[in-house]
Design brief:
Radius of gyration: 24 Å
Distance between the termini: 26 Å
Strand order of the largest sheet: 3-4-5-6-7-8-9-10-11-12-13-14-15-18-19-22
Structural class: mainly beta
Helix content: under 10%
Strand content: over 45%
Number of strands: 22
Largest sheet: 16 strands, antiparallel
Shape: globular
Amino acid sequence: MDGLRRTGKFGTTDLTGLSIENIQQVEIIRGPMSALYGADSVGGVVNIITKAPGEKLAATGSFQYGQAEQGQRDTFIERAGISTGDFHGLKNRFSAELFNKNALQVDKSVPTTTLKDIDRYYVNYAGSYDLTQQRKLRWTGEIMNQDDTGAAYNGNKGTENEERHQFSMFYDDSYDWGSLKLHGSYGKSVANVGRDAVNPRLLEKTDYNLGQIEGFLNYFAMDNLSFTFGTGGRFQEMDLSTYDRTKFPGSQTRNVFHALTQMDWDIIKDVKLLAGVRYDSFSDFGDTLNPRASLSWSPGDFNFRLGYGTAFKAPEFVNMFPTFVRTSRRGNTTSTSIINGNPNLNPEKSESLEIAAKYNFDHGIVFGSFEAIGHVTWYDDLIQYLVTNTSRPNPSTVISSGAYFNTGRAKVRGTELVF
């Protein structure tokens, strides 16, 4: 969000755990075509821009209600926001969102909840101060609380909760020759998850801390040519209760430093080249250098684009260190899955090639666009979960175990049509 990463349970980011009220727009960058984002942007980047404080005093609010079949899954969503306006360059915005969705039981003869009861609230704050017309300071704060509950087949109650705090600061400065941007943030997530169907009170606990800082210098070399230089780093620390404590007695950490440069060049009329290279240094997986480029031609209502890029994705902590034991039940059969991490994983590496053609049309009341995209990605050391052993000690019990492995090379091809 706002170009910075978010924390989440198990070290992942759940897009359903974001406040809709606080979202201004969503940017989608396909494939590893931009050097501005992480080396791990294999499939692309989704960057969510949050709402900024308004110039004038204003307030918004909304209420939604819905219900599923059989009078279940009652859903209540309340959202509200207020901007205090401009007071001598100082602007503030406060917002809140409540999201409640009742549980769903397909078979009411058993206590099992097919879908859990969802209870979440979000509190967001954004402030800004204009130091001068060119120099601007902005800061944001977020609190998210999730408390979802459900029941197993035997009536045992389970929970899935998370509390997330995030604070970010942004400094923007404009000059005749370009601009300077500095970003920094700190986030923390504490979560407890019970997903065992027999005893959901067995909790998988996450304590995840993430700090990051980065800066960008944009230089206008010519009217049709600009360069961006960037550097920064991030610190990750995560402790999971499911770590194998005989091998990993404490929290696991990762430090990442990066430096990049990117060129934006209007070569001739309607022809544009975006090219860059990014260097990343991982404290646990070494260094990587990834070039990326995209060439586009936009004659009239058409746009044709060719892109190439490489990427480097370090294994997530959740794939390396913990061991999860989860039980599910279907009918009279109880299945237990033992999911092992693999600390010897290698990073995924990839090369992507993309070609696209887009047509924009506007004929009065009929307007829009049509885009055809073809892409191919070659992966090395692809990380996948594989089941290595399955046993059936009795007719009603199945036990399987597996781990994450680098499964070698893979080639993924695809075609998309977008209207």
